[in-house]
Amino acid sequence: MTTHLDISHVSIEFPTPKGSFKALDNVSLKIEKGEFVSLIGHSGCGKSTVLNIVAGLYDATEGGILLDGREVKGPGPERAVVFQNHSLLPWLTSYQNVELAVKQVFRKTKSKKEMHDWIMHNLELVHMTHAADKRPAEISGGMKQRVGIARALAMEPSVLLMDEPFGALDALTRAHLQDSLMEIQKDLNNTVIMITHDVDEAVLLSDRIVMMTNGPEATIGEILHVDLERPRDRLALANDPKYVDYRAQVLTFLYEKQRKVEPIHSVAKNKATPATTKAAQA
Amino acid sequence: MMISNITMASLKDKISAFSVKGMLLPVFGILVFILLWQVGASRVHTSLGEFPGPVVVYEQWNSLVAEHQNERIKADKFYARQEERIAQRQAKDPSYVGTIRDYTGKPTFFDQIFTSLYTVLAGFGLASLIAIPVGILIGLNRSVYSALNPVIQVFKPVSPLAWLPLVTMVVSASYVSDDPMFSKSFLTSMFTVTLCCMWPTLINTAVGVAAVEKDLLNVSKVLRLGWMTHVVKIVVPSAIPLMFTGLRLSLGIAWMVLIAAEMLAQNPGLGKFVWDEFQNGSSNSLGRIMVAVLMIGFIGYLLDRVMLAIQRFVSWDKTQVLR
């Protein structure tokens, strides 16, 4: 297979009052079409920064992003983002939220009827047609995230970027949405980059798990190929020796090789310089 | 002892249940106020007699209503006479085209209220038309904000009374027309109101626009929304709560400013009514001024309620508690 998305030698520096802060150093990753890649690492290691650079919300200081061999600059719907806290417009219904995206992307290519069908189709994918006319405030957190995914899928993105999409949800809802995501992934065969700090989620969903070293100057530490049959069933996998082994490898990386040494005073220092913290979190 | 305690408790429950409906306490408050007013007023003596208490004010209210009705009857008769005369002339000479002259009687209290109301609404409307778009621009763009902020900060605290002479002179100099659509006094009052009341709307709109959630801005960027769509779909809806806070402050200021401006400039309206009564200095004057004071307060309250109703209608968040 050929490279679909190429993250090429990306570094980024953020200006802070105390001089520039290098969050990422020389991150390179090639992703194939239809591949599901997870980025995992301790908080503050720059996972989200990588995603934001791919999304075009941040500009890399060095290096760049190639999509099908072409450099991409600035954000665009072909790299749709599912945000951590859904980011639905609270004044629009589920339908209207998806509609905003569909109108923007397919204004010229689809008729009104086709756009309507496409919106409903995507709400159907995430099982949200019943709440099409409800506003975000009227539905649960898990449902909001579903609509957020429907909105991203409706853009027919080349790459779907997910920033800790299930991080804010309770365990049961999360499991449910992970299953939904696997189903959708099976049907649509999207290229996905997902950020997570949940080891089980990473192993269950991914073809590859990219483990990042701790910042500053974070980069890719190890890459783990997850060679498990699809469709994957979380119950059956729980005792699968391969699954357990993959899980152990990620845990070893996170808690032995990259154990986060974070003395209390450094936390306080981080808080004192919000620009640094922001950059590191993002 | 036990029994009385129980009945006291149940009485308290009943009272609190009733006051939940929001009736008892406000009525109680008003009654206490009227009582204190009556007692206090009778102790204050001025050269125009006793300070008006509630009873006097009520009497003056009735007399103002009666005056207004009389004036309406006179006006109707005046127009009826003119029409009759024209009809008579036309009977003799069919080619005759009569002109009906306006009634020139003194404007009554209620005429002045009406004048003040449409002046304040015109001034406030004009202020909103300027302040909302400018506020959006300032909120969206830091450079525009930096450029305009000093000007805004300097003009914001200026009293209407300082603007008034300038506005008057500019209006008389620039609005020269043989058949004016608006009277100069209306324009002077309106522009003064506009100049004084646009600031809260402008500043609150700007703050609301600047405070749009970063995630929503990112959504807009990822979707590559055009400037207009971005403003209409994302910026304005999220700025609406603060925008309305500004609009309500502005309308309150507009109403206060208008009364002061009318008083100083002798422009028709409630302010002029108050000033005329003060200059008149009859034994009824203080009572009539007090009627005007209460009316000004009541109209101010109604204007705010109307804005609140509009906010409820426009706001997307129906669960938000608005007061």
The backbone outline of chain B, from C-alpha atoms, is globular
Estimated structural class of chain B = mainly alpha
Strand content of chain B: under 5%
The pLDDT mean of chain B sits at 87
Q: How would a crystallographer describe the biggest sheet of chain A?
A: 6 strands, mixed
Strand residue content of chain A: 15-25%
Radius of gyration of chain B, in angstroms, nearest whole number: 26 Å
Cα-atom Rg of chain A, whole angstroms? Answer: 19 Å
CATH class bucket of the domain at 107-314 in chain B:
Mainly Alpha
CATH architecture of the domain at 107-314 in chain B: Orthogonal Bundle
Give the CA-CA distance, first to last residue of chain B: 43 Å
End-to-end C-alpha gap of chain A: 32 Å
Name given to the CATH homologous superfamily of the domain at 107-314 in chain B: MetI-like
CATH class of the largest domain in chain A: Alpha Beta
Q: What is the count of β-strands of chain A?
A: 10
| Structural classification of chain A | alpha/beta
Helix content of chain B: over 70%
The CATH topology of the largest domain in chain A, please?
Answer: Rossmann fold
Oligomeric state = heterodimer
Largest sheet: spatial strand order of chain B: 1-2
